Automatic annotation (TrEMBL):
It comes from Deinococcus oregonensis. Gene3D superfamilies: Collagenase (Catalytic Domain), Glucose-regulated metallo-peptidase M90, N-terminal domain. This is Zinc-dependent peptidase. InterPro entries: MetalloPept_cat_dom_sf, MtfA_fam, MtfA_N. CDD domains: Peptidase_M90_mtfA (cd20169). Pfam families: Peptidase_M90.
Length: 254
């Protein structure tokens, strides 16, 4: 109840001019939104920045502009439906650029191996998202590249909304879950087959598991929908129904 009242009060607060300058100058798609959607985004950014903690790593000093640019992109995912405000993400760690993370792997025979891996983003099941600032900044400005690390990691957080990261976000009803499973299973199976033939229609990382498939296809949905349409039109439609808008028509939707 306290959170509800606090969010309600935040929605009534004026959006700081300095934050607006950041949106207008450094977030490419912001200008395409209708005035109504711009206001909606602003109020969600205010809630996001009030509720999440940012921590600079590797010597990075987190500025107001960095926080706004991360928040804008995360909130874009929920701009057209009832927001969850990413309840499992409390802290965002920002590195200046790619960082090394240790991945734990189980080898045959039950041997556990720890492998250092270079990454630009990471989403933890409980509590945090880790991002490389240079990749975040570029993804806000350079549109239609098919890549966006913030959308990728916060898609994992949406996936996490049900309590498990399994490639299935919270959906409307039982029929929606059945449809999701059918469309995604078919598309993922076909992708793995295409990769085994040496054909790479989309980022092969999507073939790792259903969770990465959802995160990678979310990036494509917002940043290269024509690639997703060529890969699987039914999958494109599924994501359009889930996100509530076709990305290039951001400005028309309300
Ligand atoms: Zn991922």
């Amino acid at each position: 109840m306290l959170k509800f009242l606090r969010r309600h009060a935040l929605r009534k607060q004026p959006f700081p001019d300095a934050w607006l300058d950041v949106l207008q100058g450094r977030v490419a798609w912001y200008a395409r939104l209708t005035p109504e959607l711009q206001l909606r985004l602003q109020s969600r950014i205010q809630i996001f920045l009030r509720e999440k903690t940012f921590i600079g790593c590797g010597g990075l000093e987190v500025t107001e502009a960095m926080r706004v640019i991360v928040a804008a992109q995360a909130c874009r995912l929920e701009l057209h439906h009832e927001p969850s405000h990413f309840p499992h993400c409390e802290t965002i760690f920002l590195y200046p650029d790619a960082f090394v993370s240790t991945v734990t792997r189980m080898l045959p025979g039950g041997v556990i191996e720890q492998v250092p891996t270079v990454r630009i983003g990471e989403s933890w099941h409980r509590g945090s998202v880790v991002l490389a600032w240079n990749a975040v900044e570029e993804s806000a400005w350079a549109e239609w590249t098919g890549r966006n690390v913030v959308l990728h990691e916060f898609a994992h957080q949406l996936d996490n909304g049900s309590g498990t990261v399994d490639g299935v976000p919270v959906l409307r009803n039982a029929a929606a879950y059945t449809r999701w499973e059918r469309v995604v299973n078919r598309a993922l199976t076909r992708l793995r087959l295409q990769l085994s033939w040496g054909n790479v229609p989309i980022d092969p990382y999507a073939a790792q598991n259903p969770a990465e498939f959802f995160a990678v296809t979310t990036e494509l949905y917002f940043e290269a929908p024509q690639v997703l349409r060529a890969f699987d039109p039914e999958l494109l439609q599924l994501l359009e129904d889930y996100y509530g808008v076709f990305p290039v028509s951001d400005a028309r939707a309300a």
